[in-house]
Design goal:
The protein is built from 11 helices and no strands. By secondary structure, it is mainly alpha-helical. It has one domain: Farnesyl Diphosphate Synthase (Orthogonal Bundle), CATH 1.10.600.10. 35% of the residues are buried.
Length: 214
């Protein structure tokens, strides 16, 4: 799909990409680690692993928006660009060049754009990123139940990496301008602390009331 230069009109189309890339790895990991219970539990675990992997892929798409555009790739669906008035109703796709122009302009924010009060296309791009973050968090909430179907070591891995990705989402939501300037990564000490905290809590964070996205 990347080699053909695919673009995505809807989230359903993007979901196929997410499940074909990250989702396949999630399902393979469950197959290797195994899930507790019978056939029904194993099938449910594979679906939940797929959900978590979709959430992680959506997070990577946001933090790599500018970098992907530089490579000629746009993963955010065209319907979402239209939703935030960044693409005309008659247009079928957002070109990488147009995304790159938006991303470069978004690296130096106007104060009102960062708070979402005003700022034209810049504010709309930030709102788009925050919307995508909300969508990713919804998928994390769906998939975090996987931890309850795995043994202690498998559950620790799921809880730890989920906590790390959730922290990346928080960074993107808080400073979308920085997400356009750099690829967010957590340093090794912070990764260890965030992962350990997620494992100790042994559950995902409570969902925000607004997290009801498809």
């Amino acid at each position: 799909m990347d080699a053909r230069g695919c673009s995505y009109e809807s989230f359903d189309e993007l979901l196929l990409h997410c499940r074909s890339t990250a989702g396949s790895r999630g399902r393979l990991c469950v197959a290797v680690c195994g899930a507790r219970g019978g056939e029904r539990e194993r099938e449910r675990a594979a679906g939940l692993a797929d959900d978590l992997a979709v959430a992680m892929r959506l997070t990577d798409i946001m933090r790599n928006l500018r970098k992907d555009a530089e490579r000629g790739r746009v993963y955010v669906p065209a319907e979402d660009f239209r939703r935030y008035h960044l693409l005309g109703e008659a247009a079928t796709a957002m070109s990488p060049a147009a995304v790159l122009v938006l991303a470069r302009a978004g690296r130096v924010p106007e104060p009102q754009a960062l708070t979402g009060l005003d700022g034209g296309e810049q504010a709309q791009l930030y709102a788009l990123l925050r919307f995508q973050a909300l969508r990713a968090r919804t998928w994390f909430h769906r998939g975090i139940e996987l931890a309850g179907l795995l043994d202690r070591r498998g559950a620790a891995s799921v809880l730890g990496i989920t906590a790390i990705y959730r922290r990346l989402l928080e960074r993107i939501e808080d400073r979308p301008d920085r997400a356009l300037s750099e690829v967010f990564v957590l340093g090794a000490p912070e990764q260890a602390w965030v992962a350990a905290r997620g494992i100790i809590r042994r559950r995902g964070p409570a969902p925000h009331p607004a997290e009801r996205l498809p």
